[in-house]
Design a protein that fits this description.
single chain; 15 helices; 521 residues; 19% strand; 6-stranded mixed β-sheet; 42% helix; 7-stranded mixed β-sheet
């Protein structure tokens, strides 16, 4: 009979072997990006690119994954022209045919799910336990909107005594889609799938910090049968390539996911050409725990919604508001959970928190420990860069918990976008609502209570576009996704996506029985 220590050692050895095997498969997937600079995908073919090259380094160990070409203005224009030229054909394609092609995209995403996940882990630092499902989420997005392609243009009948009014929708035209570096593959599909289902063509610019899986998606869409020019890809820096895309007159709308400041710039850049904009921006989302809540479930949700995905999620609940009567006991259990979080290599299935996406972002997140102390808060857990074997070379940060915070502190108001949670006590329902709303953002809110009346009162009072009651973030694709205030403009999901990617037209047919006014008789 083996001893516990021997069983533990054998388990560690098997885990180490599995990690090495997964790392070898990831290296094989990444090899293609090391051979030559990553360019663009325009008009159905790869374009090497003539712009300046910049490095793309892995957050895991700062190793060079390859170089990326920043698209020139001429290359962005070429992509926009390709989308414009393809639009006439794609918008006329029957919805059933678009549905077939988009389901084929989903099939191919599923077939390459491991490749996508491996590259995403190494390019972003996100943990395998989450990225192994991200590609399948992307396939689900394509299937969901594929099934709506056949009726995306449907409208309503609005009859009067004298006219039959009916509405219809038609695609707005070529659209620019600019996606972020956190879970980039899934979020790209979240924007691109409804645009294609609506009959729009696309020019996609992924974030410069995580460009690799966007290329896989472009290849998959072409293989699935999208006509050349329907889906184009340009890489580059936001200030140059992104600006050229948002300013181009062939682009009729821009869908953007990212920080609020950049969203404001995109609005300004698109204003001269009267572009429609959809902005999914930042958040500083509260999770409110009342003393009558199921505290065990609430604790699980609190930990998951800030420390999963490295805290790099717009809907993360980064402010914890705890009723004072339960504050000390709840926070003590929370601190113990945070200390036990497993930080490690993203390809290790045991890892719960991986490295942050970029050195610049790491510096930003780490700076908030000093800000917290200067403002009088306590760094109860973490607040430092991780050290030790396998971690010191990457962008690893200790999961962090700030306590003794007040609502006016920077750590309670600014979006840190890392595995960092700020705890604020409150006395009653009114004070909880006041604290929750007293920020520039309004994306999401979470609340835990056993009182149905309170659940409804607080949900209605919170200035946020999405509220989850006694739940973590569980997405249902037909529901509207979006925020208020500095958290964005517009809604995604279900039919709400088509309201952005399509124009609504009213047609009034006279029944022949209304009096027409006569002039000049």
């Amino acid at each position: 009979m083996s001893s516990p220590s021997r069983s533990s050692s054998e388990g560690q050895a098997r885990a180490a072997d599995a990690l090495r095997d997964r790392q070898a498969r990831a290296d094989a997937c990444l090899a293609r990006f090391r051979d030559e600079p990553l360019g663009h995908f325009i008009g159905g073919r790869a374009v090497g690119g003539a712009g300046e090259a910049f490095e793309n380094r892995s957050p895991v160990d700062a190793s060079l994954l390859g170089t990326v070409r920043s698209a020139t203005d001429a290359e962005v224009a070429q992509a926009c022209h390709a989308a414009r030229d393809a639009f006439g054909t794609w918008k006329k394609l029957p919805g059933g045919e678009r549905r077939r092609i988009l389901h084929r995209v989903a099939d191919l995403i599923e077939a390459r799910a491991e490749e996508i996940a491996l590259i995403e882990c190494m390019d972003t630092g996100q943990a395998w336990r989450f990225m192994s499902k991200a590609a399948l989420r992307g396939a689900e997005n394509f299937r969901f909107f594929a099934d709506r392609a056949t009726d995306a243009g449907n409208g309503v009948s609005l009859p009067t005594d004298t006219h039959l009014n009916y509405t219809t929708r038609q695609p707005i035209g070529p659209v620019g889609i600019i996606t972020p570096w956190n879970t980039p593959f899934m979020l790209s599909t979240w924007k691109i799938a409804p645009a294609l289902a609506a009959g729009c063509t696309v020019v996609h610019k992924p974030a410069e910090w995580s460009p690799l899986t966007a290329r896989l998606l472009a290849e998959i869409m072409l293989e699935a049968g999208l006509p050349a020019g329907v889906a184009n890809l340009v890489n580059g820096i936001g200030e140059t390539t992104g600006c050229a895309l948002t300013e181009h007159p062939d682009i009729k709308a821009v869908a953007f996911i990212g920080e609020s400041r950049t969203g404001g710039l995109i609005m300004a850049q698109g204003a001269p050409t009267l572009k429609r904009v959809h902005l999914e921006l930042g958040g500083k989302n509260p999770v409110i725990v009342f003393d009558d809540a199921d505290l065990d479930r609430a604790l699980d949700a609190v930990v998951f919604m800030i420390y999963s995905l490295n805290g790099e999620r717009c809907t993360s609940s980064s402010r914890l508001l705890v009723q004072r009567s339960i504050h000390d006991g709840f926070v003590a259990k929370l601190a113990e959970r945070v200390r036990r979080l497993k930080v490690g290599h993203p390809l290790d299935p045991a890892t719960e928190v991986g490295p942050l996406v970029h050195a610049r972002h790491l510096d930003k997140v780490l700076s908030y420990a000093g800000i917290a102390r200067a403002d009088g808060a306590t760094v109860a857990v973490g607040g430092e860069r991780c050290a030790g074997a396998g971690l010191s070379e990457g962008h690893y940060v200790q999961p962090t918990l700030f306590t003794d915070a007040r609502a006016g502190m920077r750590i309670a108001r600014e979006e840190i976008f890392g595995p960092v949670l700020t705890v604020i006590p409150f006395d009653d329902e009114a004070q909880a609502i006041e604290i929750a709303n007293d920020i520039p953002y309004g994306l999401a809110g979470y609340l835990w209570t056993g009182d149905v009346g309170r659940a409804n009162r607080v949900s209605l009072a919170l200035d946020a576009g999405m509220i989850w009651v006694n739940s973590e973030n569980v997405r249902h694709l037909p529901t509207p996704f979006g925020g208020m205030k500095a958290s964005g403009i517009g809604r995604d999901g279900g039919d709400y996506s088509f309201e952005f990617y399509m124009e609504t037209k009213n047609i009034a047919l006279a029944l022949g029985n209304h009096k027409i006014q006569r002039l000049g008789v």
